[in-house]
Amino acid sequence: MVDTRDTINRCISFIEKNITRKLNLDEIAAHSLISKYYLHRMFRALTGESLMDYVHARKLSESISDLMYSDLHILDIALKYGFEYEQSYIRAFRQNFKCTPQQVRRGKISLRIVEKININDIYGVENSAIYKPFFVFRPKTYLVGKKTKIMNKSGDRAANELGTKFFYGERKKIKNILNENIYYGYTDWSNSKNGYIYYMPATQVENLQDVPEDMSGIEIPAGKYVVFRFVGFFRPEDLNGRKIGRVLVHMYTKWIFNSGYRFSVPFRFELIDSNIATNNYCELDIYQPIESEHKN
């Protein structure tokens, strides 16, 4: 079993130890003990940027100390951090910081630099991990699916079994699906204190004009969401309530109290793109509606 958090830690540590060398994705992946495809996919999914963009940004950020506190020529700094030519370093520096190394050396520019990723910011869940959340504003959304009451004592695979049955069978009844590859898992947790939730495996549709008789339609208003991306080496079919629950505990008991936000309504939904999922890799996004905690 691949440990996602340990893989990222090996990757980041190798980059930092070799920050002045010319690095490529193949070499980093080999030291991370993972294929370059999955390393690239996983890093982008968690951080929102490509691994090699991060490497270049780290190199350029580290080079600033040499610009400010050494007498090295620009060419020597370029060569030190693995750039073959002075002009390639200057060009990369300008693209990243919107100024030249010479301007920084003159001491009149403030820069937003990229520091080493703190592994303590990455929350590991078995063979999966989440990083810092991101924020999304979504337009009005229509979902159609099979809404079911799930008792807290029903076991941690109840929602998964409902979702698998829906995605591979029942959703074929729905006519106006917007994207066949996207799975939604809608959860109404307004009664969680009473010992149950409502879970609806669903798909997004154009409107609610043609909902099958044995299914439900939900209109989700436009709004702001915090999104936690859960990435790891598992099949969507292997997800269970215990694994998702650990992410939710992190979200509901740790992140929210220091965020400046509050959860605006008692529902959330999971989103999985089956085009990305494989037999040993998956990305799951948990969307929770939020609002400013100071909102009147």
Automatic annotation (TrEMBL):
Residues 9-107 form the HTH araC/xylS-type domain. GO terms for molecular function: DNA-binding transcription factor activity; sequence-specific DNA binding. PANTHER family: RIGHT ORIGIN-BINDING PROTEIN. InterPro entries: AraC_E-bd, Cass2, Homeodomain-like_sf, HTH_AraC, HTH_AraC-typ_CS, MarA-like, Reg_factor_effector_dom_sf. This is AraC family transcriptional regulator. The lineage of its organism: Bacteria, Bacillati, Bacillota, Negativicutes, Selenomonadales. Keywords: DNA-binding, Transcription, Transcription regulation. It comes from the Bacteria.
